[in-house]
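sry for the spam today, last one i promise. struct tokens for design, 342 residues
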């Protein structure tokens, strides 16, 4: 592995601009330092470069962000395609405007709370464990809410962007090759991102949804480019007119249905709607008595009464011929009657 030394830095500098200056003196004036693709694994002391504005450290083997506290004037930092697993030790870079961290092993976007001047953040194509996605620390998003204008989160298994709605000044979102599926999720953030100019979502399942493009254009009045294609004003105006016409038809249909049901609605003192349904009353007519039926009923009742009288006479006759010693007693005791055969 290679460490950053003065000799390595000297070789990377433009010797023509150096003239007869000492290396230390020249480094104090240096604003751009290119140390990319040097197989560097550790960021050593670079404190001599106090006026450094741009630092190129991409395509190395760096595992940790460190030793950058001196770079209070740094504006652009390129650390893509290294072995970095965590965003850290950036608190002193208060003037940082662009941060490139794509192609590393970062799972959480964090440690950006002090970077209130950051305008561009690139964290695309992280080497993630199977089934995981890049997450965003709410504290970092809160710090970047007003400053961040460009965000690249492509190829990170991201399935929703609602957490990013706080980035109110975003103008260019690059989120290709992710797992974003729902147009409603996009419509939510598009209603908040009033400064969005470019949106790139190629390679997401949402791009295959019916009328995906139309719905995105209708929702974002500021959008100028979608998935690399320019949005023409004539196209936007047509879609907006069509949407207005559709909404008007829906409103008229709803009002028509309300008018149809209006006669059956009533408001009481509590302003509650109660439906009242019409009640129909049918007059009852008096029917003449059917004497044939009444006669039949009387005959039936008389027959039953006659049968009961004959039965009682037979019982009495049997009791009178019974060889009881005291017939009066027997007749006065009901339990004896129950024992006699009929």
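last one done:
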């Amino acid at each position: 592995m290679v460490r950053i030394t003065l000799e390595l830095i000297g070789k990377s500098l433009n010797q023509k601009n150096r003239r007869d200056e000492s290396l230390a003196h020249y480094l104090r004036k240096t604003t751009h330092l290119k140390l990319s693709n040097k197989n560097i694994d550790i960021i050593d002391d670079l404190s001599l470069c106090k006026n450094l504005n741009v630092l190129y450290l991409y395509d190395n083997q760096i595992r940790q962000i460190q030793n950058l506290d001196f770079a209070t004037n740094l504006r652009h930092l390129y650390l893509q395609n290294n072995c970095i697993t965590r965003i850290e030790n950036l608190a002193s870079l208060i003037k940082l405007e662009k941060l490139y961290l794509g192609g590393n092993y970062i799972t959480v976007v964090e440690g950006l709370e002090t970077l209130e001047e950051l305008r561009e953040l690139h964290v695309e194509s992280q080497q993630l464990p199977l089934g995981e996605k890049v997450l965003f620390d709410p504290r970092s998003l809160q710090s970047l809410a007003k400053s961040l204008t460009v965000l690249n989160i492509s190829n990170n298994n991201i399935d929703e962007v609602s957490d990013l709605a706080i980035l109110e000044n975003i103008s260019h979102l690059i989120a290709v090759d992710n797992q974003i599926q729902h147009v409603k999720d996009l419509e939510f953030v598009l209603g908040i991102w009033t400064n969005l100019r470019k949106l790139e979502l190629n390679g997401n399942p949402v791009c295959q949804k019916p009328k995906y493009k139309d719905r995105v254009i209708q929702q974002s009045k500021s959008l100028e480019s979608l998935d690399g294609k320019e949005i023409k004003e004539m196209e936007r105006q047509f879609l907006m007119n069509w949407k207005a016409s559709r909404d008007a038809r829906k409103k008229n249909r709803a009002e028509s249905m309300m008018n149809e049901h209006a006669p059956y609605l009533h408001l009481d003192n509590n302003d509650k709607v109660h439906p009242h349904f019409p009640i129909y009353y049918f007059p009852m007519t008096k029917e003449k008595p059917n004497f044939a039926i009444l006669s039949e009923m009387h005959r039936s009742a008389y027959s039953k009464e006659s049968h009961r009288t004959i039965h009682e006479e037979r019982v009495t006759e049997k009791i009178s011929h019974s060889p009881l010693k005291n017939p009066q007693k027997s007749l006065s005791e009901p339990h004896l009657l129950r024992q006699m055969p009929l």
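The chain has a mean pLDDT of 81. ok im logging off now
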